[in-house]
Amino acid sequence: MISVGVIGCGHWGPNHIRVFSQLPNAQCMMAADLDEGRLKAVKALYPSVVTTTSYKDILASKEIEAVCIAAPTKLHFQFAKEALEARKHVLCEKPLAMLPEECLELGEIAKKAGRFLMVGHVFLFNAGIRWVKEYIDSGEMGKIYYTHSERTNLGPFRYDVNALWDLAPHDIAIFDYILSGSAQSASARGLKCLGNNLEDLAFATLDYPSGNLANIHVSWIDPRKVRQITIVGEKKMLVWDDLDPLGAVRVYDKHVERTTKFYETYGEFQLLSREGAITIPKISSQEPLKAQGQYFIDCIEKGLPPQLADADKAASVVKTLCAIQKSMDHQGALAVI
Ligand SMILES: NC(=O)c1ccc[n+]([C@@H]2O[C@H](COP(=O)([O-])OP(=O)(O)OC[C@H]3O[C@@H](n4cnc5c(N)ncnc54)[C@H](O)[C@@H]3O)[C@@H](O)[C@H]2O)c1
């Protein structure tokens, strides 16, 4: 049984407290927040959890082996560093830090302390995304031409980071995972609409080594909540829609063929669209946050590093975020990663 302490009990932290309270081989022992009101709310739901206004109480506890960080983004690096130095295993919310060098530094500290460090790239534990990764790897789609993700809603707004840093870590982590690599360059535009001097939306285009383009649209000022990715391959196309009640993945047996049938004399070709069935594969699902928590705890118990979302993977995502931000700051100029 691994005892966990959760730092940050705002909107998201209580979900981690619930998950670690429900897992068979973990328990949430302590929770910290500066806000007494948030601690009261946690205590009402989980009376056995010890609450504190000082996260240092969690770091000082001898019984607690692992720390989960769900505090504001700009505190992730400091809290993760202190927790690793206190020889705790760490699961930190995305993005792990604001600079790739900081992610790598945390990875080194974890190695020296003999502890595991994992970032909460929770969509890597989404059953639909797992299915899509396997499908692409099977070669059924052929060469991937492009991917396009939309992550929009009206709110929730943040005051510490912009919509890019809040939302796009998910899309970049998904693209790195399903395309088995990381982006090489970025060009992006963003817009500050609401007067907080933060970009409320971003449109980013990334180049992946396999030659495909990956496009990301994130926004917290959009009329619709959308969590969608379109993937276009040379043999098949698919759409992942996390909010579709009928099934998250639709595979379109659609592609384009080149033919010289009618133009042989001129050596020309014609493009013909081919359309077959649209299928919705049966994908059994588990709550991604719970699957993520289970993976973290299992890694600790088995002594296996959390390779799926380790410091290197986190650094790669943050490197891409920095490049997108740089491009946005220069009105879309290409930023090499
Ligand atoms: N994976 C996901 O899908 C997902 C979803 C939501 C949020 N998040 C991440 O979770 C983190 C928290 O997001 P949130 O929406 O809960 O934010 P929030 O602002 O609602 O909560 C943050 C909490 O941290 C507390 N805090 C601030 N400084 C502290 C300190 N020094 N010690 C202890 N507590 C402190 C605040 O009082 C607040 O209650 C962010 O990094 C965010 O990116 C991830």
Structural topology:
Blueprint (H helix, E strand, L loop, with lengths): L1 E6 L5 H10 L3 E7 L3 H10 L4 E3 L2 H6 L5 E4 L6 H10 L3 E5 L6 H14 L3 E4 L6 H11 L6 E11 L8 H16 L6 E7 L9 E7 L5 E7 L1 E13 L3 E5 L7 E11 L10 E10 L8 H15 L8 H19 L5 E2 L1
Parallel strand pairs: 1-2, 1-4, 2-3, 4-5, 5-6, 7-10
Antiparallel strand pairs: 7-11, 8-9, 8-15, 9-10, 11-12, 12-13, 13-14
Helix pairs in contact: 1-8, 4-5, 5-9, 7-9
The structure holds nicotinamide-adenine-dinucleotide (NAD).
Nicotinamide-adenine-dinucleotide binds next to loops.
Overall spatial form: globular
Spans where pLDDT lies below 50 across 5 or more residues: none
Number of E strands: 15
Count of individual helical segments:
9
Q: What is the CATH top level name of the largest domain?
A: Alpha Beta
Give the biggest beta sheet: 9 strands, mixed
The CA-CA distance between the termini, in Å, is 41 Å
- The CATH H-level homologous superfamily of the largest domain: Dihydrodipicolinate Reductase, domain 2
Describe this entry's structure for a reader:
This protein has 337 residues and is of the alpha/beta class. It folds into 2 domains: 2-121 and 288-306, Rossmann fold; 124-285 and 319-336, Dihydrodipicolinate Reductase, domain 2. Helix content is 33%, strand content 30%. α2 (36-45) links the parallel β2 and β3 (50-52). α1 packs across α8 (288-302) and α7 crosses α9. Nicotinamide-adenine-dinucleotide binds at residues 7-13, 32-35, 38, 55, 70-73, 75, 93-94, 120, 122, 166.
Features of this protein?
Rossmann fold; 30% strand; binds nicotinamide-adenine-dinucleotide; alpha/beta; nine-stranded mixed sheet; 9 helices; 337 residues; Dihydrodipicolinate Reductase, domain 2; 2 domains; six-stranded parallel sheet
